[in-house]
Amino acid sequence: MKKLIFIVLMVFALSIVYDTTFAAENSEYSKALKYYNSKKFKEAAELFKEQVQKHPSAVDYYLLGYSLYKLGKFEEANEYFKEAYLLDPEFSLEKAGLIKKTPEAKPEEAAKPSMEKVPDAEKPSVSETKK
Is residue 110 part of a domain? Predict the structure, then answer.
């Protein structure tokens, strides 16, 4: 019975520590996203650099790269973009949930000619087409 109580208390204590740590990290990540969405790319880049050191993910590497790109640090940004694709070779903005896929136009709709009639005044005459 004592062992059971001890195990329950340990699980409870560990869950509190985990929740506190996760909440702190999550708030830093939320702050990075707020900076990014507010176009405060310098602050966002600093926080994303910390994030990718703790928990590397393709999305975070991409967001860090894009923040640096917006700051004009193109070579450094390119390195982080490469890291994103190394972690996830099939990475895409749509897959990461960063953009929504737009429906594509159907090919037959795009190829349809206009059904408008050309006024007679604008039609080339037979003599003009033979020249």
Answer: no
